[in-house]
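Please decode residue identities from the backbone states below.
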């Protein structure tokens, strides 16, 4: 399933990119993230708790963020909820562009594959949840960057 989202942050691009450079801090802006821990070789492990429709999931997994030559962030990750046999595998690209001196547009493109109980929920329900999570992520991101002064 492919997702595209655009986020506007009222902060200069240098400030937004500096925030994204701290993967743990940026990841904690995503709703439901309970933990993020750096491992060796640029890998991170974490846990996210989400509710999609009537089902709740506790997904544990790993992700690897990388800065591309073009300046975008590329994150590949996968996780599973062993309790209910559900899984997710995602490839995400986030590209920041200046929108004047004091604002930044962040374009997020994601290709996500679901398995098990998550796959059975259907695309409309999953898309609605994804849209909601990106909206909340954007709000958390704006607040976190503003709090840094």
């Amino acid at each position: 399933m492919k997702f595209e989202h655009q986020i506007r942050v009222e902060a200069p691009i240098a400030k937004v990119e500096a925030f994204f450079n701290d993967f743990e801090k940026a990841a904690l802006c995503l709703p439901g993230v309970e933990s993020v821990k750096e491992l060796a070789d640029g890998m991170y492990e974490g846990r996210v708790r989400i509710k999609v429709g009537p089902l709740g999931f506790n997904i544990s997994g790993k992700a690897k963020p990388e800065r591309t030559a073009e300046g975008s962030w590329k994150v590949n990750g996968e996780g599973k909820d062993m309790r209910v046999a559900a899984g997710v595998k995602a490839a995400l690209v986030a590209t920041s562009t200046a929108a004047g001196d004091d604002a930044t547009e962040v374009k997020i493109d994601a290709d996500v594959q679901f398995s098990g109980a998550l796959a059975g929920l259907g695309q409309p329900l999953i898309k609605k949840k994804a849209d909601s999570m990106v909206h909340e992520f954007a709000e958390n991101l704006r607040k976190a960057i503003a709090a840094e002064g």
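Observation: Residues 41 and 64 are 9 Å apart (CA to CA).
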